[in-house]
Each structure stands twice: as C-alpha cells, then as structure tokens.
Fold each of these.
Amino acid sequence: MVPNGCRILDQLGFYEPFFNSTIPLEEVFDRDNNGKPLAPGSDFAQLQTARTGYQLSFGDRRALLQIMYDGIRDKKKIQLNKKLIDVIHSDDGVTANCGDGTTYKGDVLLGADGVYSKTREAVWDLAAKERPEVVRKDRQALTAEYQCLFGVCMMAKGVRIGDGEYGYDHGRSSLVVCCKEGRTYYFIFQKMDKAYRGTGFPHYSKEETEEFAKAHFDMKIRPGVNFEALWKNTIAANLVVLEEGTFDIWTHGRIALVGDSIHKMTPNVGYGGNTAIESAAALASTIKEMLDEGYPSESQIRERFLTYQNARQQRTNQMVRVSADVTRIQAMQKLKIMSHLIPYLGDTLADLQAEMVVGATAINYLPIPRRSVAKVNMPYNPTQGDGMKESKLKRFALALPFLFLCFSAAKLMAPDPMIPWATSILETNKLPWTDAPLPTTFYRLEWLDNALAPIVVFFSPVLLDISNISYQALLFLSDYGLILAIWLIESARRANTFTPAQLPLLFTLSSQFIGVGVISPLYYLLHYTLSPIEKFKAADMRLTRIAYTKSILPAVILTYQMPLYLSFFTPRFEDRVAWNFFWQLYPLWLSPVASHLFFRLFDDTTKHDRIHNVTRDLKTIRTTIGLLSAQSALFWVYTIVKSNFSFSTLAAEILPPLHSPQTAPDLVTFAGEFLRFDQAFLFGSTLLWLGYLFWDTKHAGMLSMGWGKILGYAVVSLVALGPAATVGLGFLWREEILATRRHWAAMTEDKARERNRELGYEWDESGKAVRVGKEKGGKTGGKK
C-alpha cells in the first residue's frame, strides 16, 4: 500500500487496522546481479511519509480484504461465486446473468472484474456498432513481455526486517521485502522469449512454477543470500504472466469499468492495486454526485461515466507507462546505463512516486483524514503530478523574450570592433594610455594566457580608469556577485536536480568570454522552462544543500570579490593586471571552493532536513543574499551622493549609452559602452526573470498581491536601492513565498477542515473525523 491508496483506506476507516498488521519500509536498496548495493540504502519511504502522512507498507492482500470485509455493515450485499456470463443492456436498465442461473437487474453495471474482464467484453460488444475501429484497437491493447513469480516465505538468514531489495540483472530482476515477524514477499521478474498481444496469454502449472523458481536459484538477493534460500522457506507462490495495457473504452451506456479491466500495469512500483482503489473512489464519487442532482436519465448516466473516464484516463495511462519503464530498466532492457547512474540519482525514486501520488483522487463525499493534511510536506493536489504536468513547450514559448534579449545582446556586444585594437596592443605589448608595460602572461600556460590576454586588454582602460569608466565598471561587477550567489543557490536547490541550473560553472565561464549580458538571458530561459512552480509541490523541493549554501557567501567573497577589488585598487598597474588575470577565471575557483573547500567546513544535514526541517536553509539564504544586497544598496546610495543628486551625472554613471558599442571609435569607448550594455542586459533579464517567477506564484494562488502594487514596490526599490538590491529583495521575497505558502488547489489542513465542515464532519482530538451536522445539500434526492 502506497499513499494514494492509503488515503482512501483511511477515509473508509481501514488504514489503521491494515497498518497495524504490517510494518513500514525502513530502507530500500538497489543491487546489482551480485547482490552488491549500487548505492547506499535509501530512506525514500520515510521521505514519502513526511510528504504524504502515510507509510509505504507491504502485507497480505487477503488480510486487507478481510479488514475491508469486516468493515462492511450489511454483509448480505456481498454475493460470492457469481460468475458473470452475459450482460443485457436496455433503455431502462442493465441485467447481469450469472453462471449459477441467478439474474440481477439494476440501473448501472460496474465491472471491477480484472484483466480478463467479462464486463469489458460486454462493453466491446455493445460499442462495436458505434466505434468498431476503437473496439478492434482495444481488443489488441493488452500485451505481455514479462512473467513474474510472486511468493510469500519466512525470513531467510541474511534478510533484514523492514528492508526492501531491488535486484537488477540482464533480462530479469527481483524485489524482496521483509515485513512483520519475518514474513517476506518476493517477486522474480523474467523477460519472456515471446511477446504476447490481445489473446493467448500463458497460464502456468505448479510444475512450471517450480521449474521457473529453480532456474533462478542463483539470483543474488543480498551478498551471501540467493533466491534458493527464499524458495526453501516459501509458504505460497504463483507464476503469472504480467499483462500490460491501457484501453480507450471505459464505458458504454449504463456500464462502466474500473481497475485492471481498464488499466493494467506491472507491479514493480506497486501502483496497480492502489490505482484501482483510486479509480473506484473516483467512480463512487461520480455516482454520488449524479444521484445528488436527482434520479438520472440514461443520457445523464452516459455523460457522467464519460466524465469519470476523462478525469482519470491521462493519469492512469501515465502510471502504466512509468510502471512499464521501471520493469524494463530493472531488467536492464531499457536505459542500461541506469544501474551506473543510481549512485547519483538521490531521491529520484521518491520524486517519481511523488509525481504519481500528489494528484491522487479521494472519495469526495467522505471527510479528508487529518493524517493526510496535518504537517505534511506535500499536500495532495488534483492539478499536479503525472498526466497533469505543465507543458515545457508552452513555457519555452512564453519565455521567448529571453531569447530575444540573448540575440540582441550578442549583436550589440559582438567583440569584432575590439579585435584589431587588441591585436595591435598585444603585438607591441604597449598600451596607448600609459608607459607601463602590459603583462600578457600569468598562468605560464601558453594556450590559457593567450585566451585571457585579449580580455585583459579589454579591461586595461578600466584598470587605468581612462575616461573615468573605472567606477561604473566596479559598480556593475560588484553587483554581479549577488547574481552569482543566486545562481549558486539555485544550483543547490533540490527542485533543480538534473537541469542546467545545476551547472553554474557552464554559464559563468562562458560569460567571461562572451559577456554575462548574452549568457544570463539564456540561463533564465532554461531555468523558467525547466523549473515550473509544480516542482515545488513538496516543501522539501525548495530546500537547498545546506552545507553548500553556507559556503556560497565566503566563496563569493574569497574567489570573486577579493580578486576583483584587488585588480581595481592595488597601487601598481602590473599588480592590478596580475589580479585581473586571476579574477578572469573566478568560475574555476568559485565552484571548487564552494563545493569542496568550504563545503567540508559545514555539517551537511540535508538528508535529515528534507524530512524533518525543510526550512533550515532559509536563515543562510537570507544572510547571504541580504548582505550582498546591502552592499549593492550602499554602492548605489554612494553613487547618488557622488553625483550630487544630478540626474544627468547619475545617468552617465549607471545608464547604458544611446549608441551601440559597435560604433565606438576606440577601445576605451568600446569597453565603457560594452560594460554598460552588459550591465543593462544582465539586470534587465534578471528583473524580467523575477517577473516570470512572480507570475508563476500568482498563477498558483501563492501570491494575491496585484501587479500594480508589485511593480510599484519594484520601482521604488530600483530608485532607492538600485537594480542589484532590488533583485536580491525580490529573490528573498519569492523564497519566503515558496517556503510558507501552498498552491491554490493543494489540500491543506485549513482547506480540508473547511471541506469536512461542509460535509458535516469535524476532527476530534485524536484526528478522527466525526459527524457533527447534516451534510450540505440535504438528503440525496430521487430513487436510488
């Protein structure tokens, strides 16, 4: 049982007794075909509990069925051994004929009769006249490429209670979970020599089951533990073919299907039964809503059943696909490199399950359990998760203004005019503005010095303060340190895993040779496209690696700001040039210092924090961005005072010129204009990026403030504190929003309490929902 199914069991009062009958997973291992762990044991089960409020637990299906049966008040409604033989559909009802001669007539027929559903056959027969091509396609939709030996045994020596073991092998895989009192569940998956489609799926005898088991005796569960040891302690086992498939027809007229009859998936991630529970809850809710509006006609029934299908189909189809992919990955038939990547995947499995869980449905006429909303890091949200993800193509299209800024900056800031001036200076090794020689070597690596020398030539008018351009350059480059800190924070954020935002070195290093005004819009384009607000559905996804985040401020000061200031303020020109050579490669110093040197000075509590303290890094982020923003604001205020509050003088200090660097008559003018355009494109694109991020939070209902007020604050901050401090304050504001507010559709504790009251329920002190008044809307109307 996983969280999406557990919440529904909890609504029905079955979760506690089931949970008490088993134990939760504690640690999960991915192992190679020798039983050796591919990575340290994962606590993703605890992470899922922190996110959803529910444990991931294994138990006997018959035990769960017994618990559910015991909870049924009128057991006379349960009729056993009723094999469906025929279905008769008419305008006023539907009749089910059973193998024992009994007949049942009703308003609707709901088929939850499994992968070889007789009800589905009846639906196909009825729909064939209207949709023959779709029926033909559905009749071939079921496939099978794998077989599986399911078994229950007593714990073998070397297997630990509470552990889950995933085994990867070529063409086969395994899953072993040891639970309460050593009761162990195993699954041995094998790719078959032949793939099946539509019909003719094999069934296996007891002898074939034993042959299959013996053929896999050598499979390593853990070092020193073969599958043979589990087979010897087996209580029950069954070899089956693993059917897979999704169907386009879920309903026809008064008949609707649910569970494996419409979405059959492999069991590697444990979502088949839980998804069936979800679909049953959705169908029950659909019928309840339909009856609350009065007794329905056949057309209304048909319409409601189609609504049920449309609401569920995209999500269930995605679950079938994900389950199929995991089966093939673990059998090393797809993405074979994955077994080598597992040590670097972190919480990928937990995040995969989060995508499958967060959008789960519940029974909408029963109260929401307090356990599912109280102190959870990931509230359920029907607008998020698999099948509901925001289109990356749409986000890319919305972010095209960044691409325009990138191309514009590249055109305006092209280095072509500088090339002849720099070549002439490097050939003579003399600057036209000073008698001091220009050092052209520093690292004693010819290729590296040759690559950096033209950039140093570009900066030489700045270092000599020719035409008073030194202060403007210093103001810009000092403010750039704040942007670097923001990029580094984003690189450490869990939501940005496996996105380009994790590679600040790529963007900062290319910025040194092309211009940050060209590169920054590209960074923001990729960030906005690949990091939508839905990535923050779990509060721990906002969290950054705490030790790395603590290292950012000292690393920026040591490797970026100190060399920068020394290259401006060291007395001798030759020394300023030397420090400039060193500063040019700050990206190479910044990342290693932050990642390895300072990182080791701090305790990295991220693994604990993502479960128990998802806001631990907030204080560090506030301090880092706050101090750098204060520094930028002081520079800005000093600039205003220095200009004697003259707008024309201030504009000459901070605003880009009206003409392009491409028309500059000399290197000094080119350098000054280039840096001012570089500054304008950097902070212009950064402010635009923040605007996009705030639009995301507003669209998600996490920020209700109007655009007029937001823009008003931005303008006041720009005038009073400058662009860099405004960016810093905006970034911190967004951080607080992500840390403290939830999506408009998230089922938070307050929203669940309000919903329960509408249904006539309140939570008591133990968290149990108790009825306190009449259900909203009164009694159900019409015939039932």
Note: The radius of gyration is 32 Å.
Amino acid sequence: MEPPECPVCLQSYDGVSSVPRVLSCGHTACEECLTNLPKKFPNTIRCPACTVLFKLPPQGPSALPKNIDLLRLFPSVSQIKLEPRRNCKNNPVEFVVRSWSDDFYATWKDRILVHDAVSVENGESEVTDLALSSCLCGTLKDDESKVSLLRVASFELDDCDSFLKYSYVQRMMSCLWGMREEERYELDAIVSIKQRGVSKVFGLWGDLKNGVLYLVGEKLTGEELDNLTEDADDTSRLAMFGMQICEALINLHKEGVISGCLSVSCVKFDEFENAYVDLIELIETGRNVYQIIAEETRSLRKPVGVSEMGLILIGLLQKGIFMSSEVLFELLKEQKMLIKNASSKSLVSYSSDVWPVCFLLLKLLLGKRFTEELIGSVHCVDAKGCEEGLEDLLVLYTGIMEKLCLESELQGKFKFMVEVLRQCCCLDPQGRPVLTDLWKCIRDLVMNPRFNSLSGLHKTVSGKRKEFCLSLSELCHLVDVKSKELEEASPGAQTGGEAEEGKVDIDFVGRLSEGKVKSKDMRGHQDSVTALAVGGGFLFSSSYDKTILVWSLKDFSHVHTFKGHQDKVMALMHIDGAELVCVSGDGGGGIFVWSTSFPLEDQPLRKWYEPKDWRYTGIHALAYSEYGYVYSGSGDNTIKAWSLQDGSLVCTMSGHKSVVSTLVVLNGVLYSGSWDGTIRLWSLSDHSLLTVLGEETPGIVRSILSLAADDQTLVAAYQNGDIQIWRDDTLMKCTKIQSGAILSIAVNGKWLFTGGWDKTINVQELSGDEISLDCTHVGSIPGSSVITSLSYWEGKLFVGFADKTIKVYYCGC
C-alpha cells in the first residue's frame, strides 16, 4: 500500500521533511504546506480539506500536534480519506428565468450605454415622432458631443403584467436576445469597428419613454459634401477627399463590412476637413434604398423591366445614392421582383464598393450637372425596344456608362482618370480595379509618390469577421420607417407572436412569460413584521405584536400561532437538526424554543432569559451552529453562546462597540455584524476571535444592519444603502444599491435581494469567479411599505413589511 500523503503537496509523510500536523478540525496536512498556505488574516488559516477557518498558535504550524498515529501506522492509515468539501448546492430554483447565457451578457453588457447617457434633441411634444423616427440627433451628456441615433429595435414600454420591474440593462438584454442571430451579428460587427476614417459608434441606448433601442454614433458637424461641389476647380482638395473615402472603405473591408452603396450624406468632415465615412448614415442610406425599391415594386405583379428599373435608378439618383449593379440586383431578388438570369449574391464582394466610389467622385467633379445627365440618360433608354431579361439592364447601364465618357469635360490632370473610372463602372465585378488601385490613381494626381509601388496595398483584403454587405444587411431591412407597418409595430401595438417581415418585434420582454413574477398576500399580524424563517415545511414570521405565525408553504395559508413572548419578537430562526425547532428572541431578552413537528404545540419546549443591564435593548439577532449552540446578538454589544438542550450560557464574546445587529454562520465561522460598522469572525470550536472586517476605514462608521451568507459568499448591508460582498473572506465588491437604509438582505446562489426604507425590493444577480465579481441589477419590486425582512426559498421570495403584511413573490405563468 502507498504511504499516506499530504493533501496539498501530495508528498508522503516521513516525520522529518514532511511532518503531519493535526488541525483543530481533525484533518492533517504537512507542516511546510501549512506554513506556506496564504493567510488572508493574521494568525489564521483555512483547512485545505474542509476550508474551516481557525486560529493558529502564535508559534505557527510547528506548535500544532503531530499525527503520531499516522506516522506509526503507515499501511493502515493510507485508507483514511479526507472529508470532502461539502456542497449543499443542488440545483437551485431560479427566481427569474432568463433566456440568455452568461457569455451573451458578458458580450453585450459593455455595449449598452447607461440609461441617462444620451439626451435626445427633440422636445417632449414630439414623442409620437420620436417613437416612429428611424434616425434622430442627440447629445452625450458626459462631454456634450453630438451623436446620431439610429433605431434598431423596439421593446415594450412597461412590463405591467409582472410585479418585477426589470432594470434598464435587463430590458435591453431582452430586446437584444429577441433579435435574430443575423441581426445581432451585424450589430456586433458595427459596434466593434474602430478604424481610421470611419465615424465612431459608441454603443446602444434604450429610450425608455418611447420603447426604442438606438445605435448611437458620432455625428460630425463639419462642412457638407454637397457644398464642396461648388469648388470643383480645386482638384487637389477633391483628390484628397477621394483618397480618404477610399481609405475608409478599405478599413471597413478589414472588418468584413462591404458598404454596397454610398450617398453624399455618408461622407462627413471633422474640424480639420478630413473626410470620414459615417456608419450611421451608411445604414440609413441602405434603408432609404430598401424603401425606394419597396415603393416602386409594391404594386408590381411581374418581374422588373427597363421602365421600372429606370424609376428605381432615378429615385436613387435624386437622393444622391449610388449603388453597384450587383447589389441592386440582389435587393430586387430579395423583393422577388428580379428579372430572369440575374446575378447571384456570390457576385457581391469587396469590388462592389468601387462602383459607388467612382460615381461619388464624378459627383464631386461635375456637381448637379452629373446627376441631371445621369437621369437624362436613364430617360433616353428605349424600353419598348428591349426584351425582358438581363439584356434590359445591360442596355440601361450601357447608356449610363457611355455618359461617363467625358474626356472633353475633364481638364488637366483628370484626363488620366477617365480609363480607370470607366473600368470602375464595369458590370462585371471581376473586371473592375480594386479600391487600392483607385486610391493610387487619385494619389498620383496630387503628389509624386516616394515609392512607385507599395507592396502592402497589393495584399488581398481579409476581413476579421465573416463578410457581409451593409446594403443587404438585416440592419438596413430591420425598420421600414415610412410604411404603415411601422406604425402598427410602434410600442404597445404588438403584444405577442412573431413579427412579420419588415416589422420590429417588440415583444421581447413578453417572451420571458415563464419568468414573470406574481405575488400573494399573507395577513395575520397586528404590528410590523420583524423576521422570517423557512423550515420543516413551514414559513415562520415574527412581529412587534409578540407572536410567531406559522404558514403553510403549499398554499401560504395560516396554520398556527406561537404565543408566549412578553415583549416584541426581534429575531427568528429555524433549526433542522435532530429535532425540528423554531427559536425566537424578544426585546426583553427572552429566548423561546418551539417544536415544529406536527401537530404544533401551543407552549414552547423551553425558554430562558438573558440578564439585563442599563445598556440592554434586547436580542437583535440569532444564529445556530452544528455544535449545538444558539448564538444571540444583543444590545449590550456582546454575543452569547447558549446550549440548545438546556439553555445554559456557554460563553460570552465581547469586542463590538455597539449593538450586535446580525449574525450568520458560514463554513465553520460565526460572523457578527454591528452598528459599529465592523464584522467580527469567531471560531465555532473555541469561540475565539479570528479577525475583524471593516476597520480599514477609521473615522467612517456605517452601521451594519443585516448579513446574509450562501456557500462561500457573505453579503453585508449598511445603513447608508451600501452592500459589501466577500468570497472566502476576500472583499470582492462594494456598491450602493439603495438610497436609504437596507434593513434586510437574502442571498441564494446567484440571487441577491435587498429591501429597506425605500420600500423597494431590489433583485441583483451575482456572477464572476475567484478573481472578479459582478453584481448586476436585474430589476425591482415596488412595495407598499418599509421592507423589514426577506427570506428566499426554492424560487420563492418572502417579504415582511412594516404595514403588518407578508408577501410571497414567485415565478408563474
């Protein structure tokens, strides 16, 4: 048989280099490992087997006794197995059922702007217009920067069917989760773009007044591109703009984004007159194209011919929109109005951006005359002499291409661009030059390049993501702003089912119907409820009316009343031990033990009283340990340990400077919270003080009103509305939850509930690991009065109020 090993270093014990030392919990580890184990608090150590925290002797691990039997009986003791760390967490019932995963939340949470980050410039009187508008202007409140707001989705204005009012972030997450995967992918790609020459996208913002989710992008306020056409003779200036537009689109290609079309409004300028491509305007231009095509083809019952195509092109040109032929074909194909033998989507590629750039440059050079002549060329096509089919489009585009033969109109240096521009308008995407070739051609007009060739520009563009064409994207087809369908899909109009094509699915919160929270009232107390406890198949509630009421957990009906206290009952707990009992403590120092085995008795099994002095204000907290001790936190600043069997006083623990307001037992340690703002840790084995939390901020006193523990997590609630969260006695999070005092908290797995003076139950979700911890506000439940006590059990939240009522909140259909 193998000799016994240290559970930390897995080295065999030999009594010399690896000496087995016995810890107070009964487990054994070698002296060297115990010396090197991390110590979060002075002179304390956690057992590597059962994680119990206990006090080390002043001399260190060497003062611990050797495991003589282990050294003497090597063969037999190898059969000894360390007690595994107990895991009392089975499969906890979720309080709020959510559809998305932790990874989904981690991906999108930082892309959602806070609810007050954006100020919409439109006034309050224009709420209806705001709800139906696709693109608005606004201001970032932090730095007063101008932004563009592009509508991407809608959500319900109010989840009135549920007691739980979901938080802003949760509602935005529900909205995003309700979108199709393709829509989210494109939205993620747009938000992630951080390229030179492309306007910034700050993130997503939800307008809670109108139920609209917006994409927030940078709004440049420089000179408009239309104004530059008046300076067509300034060839150097126009050439620089052309180069910058090419560079911006090349950078978009690096992100896997193909624009597919451009308009005059897509190009903006900063204060230094550098040209930028506006991502928000690109999407808005794509929506305009979709709208124009939809309007021209809505009444058609046959494939698009030359006349219809002419109307579409004229509509695009009048709005200053230039689109490559293959992208236009694909849009018609999606509308099921494409003529026979048309192109397929495989023809849409990075070369599709060369065509609109070419048209935009000619627009810059020739101004309004360019648009007028293009529209004239469309009118000149003889639709009657063409057969239906691909030839119709070829004839139409040939007429436009011939109009580009403008050598006589291009003076000076621009004569060298004619051939390149004509190649850019080739119907075959593979016959066009790439954007880098166009960039070099423009550069040669204004400067003598230092190098005749730049090797980096000849590399094939390889996007970081799966490529997609913005003009054909789901984002461009997501909202049809001027259609009747949008009015029908405005907030509150649609309440269920799948959204029709072209509409916005607004029932995202409604999809969480299984997570909607219902409630039931339990009335019976004659004064404020002070504490709640669950155990033995019952809910127990105490009150200032000196009684403990017993409620059924099946139908929440009143079962029994425990009477006997002569003072207001301040603390309550249930013990699931050898005998099922409920222990209550009152303001006069009385501690009563009640049997909870059915049938319930009227008289307590036993009772005892704490001695009083002039400082005494009664018992404020109770806790229980597996050693058979009941612990009471008192107004005399002490903690007392009592034998549950006979009520005898075992010991008194002193150290707090004010009332001991709350007690909790976790992993072999008794935690006590006090109005003095500190948490003291006591050993359950010998009741010695282990360490003190909260003394690191001298001069600042925040009274601790409640403690809650679950597994390795300890949460403390303070009088100023703050909470602090520890894991394995390491402070992980400190945050403000409420504006007023938090009187009670409950924690179960990842769910944290707080309630107090603000009459609201706040629901938080805990996530993270041993390095970091997130505390996410899920939502809130408005209450009718001050919340005095909370208890969570198997997906049900029990709440005690100062107005004598008890409510149970639970998920239901």
Note: Residues 75-89, 123-133, 340-345, 480-515 have pLDDT under 50 and may be disordered.
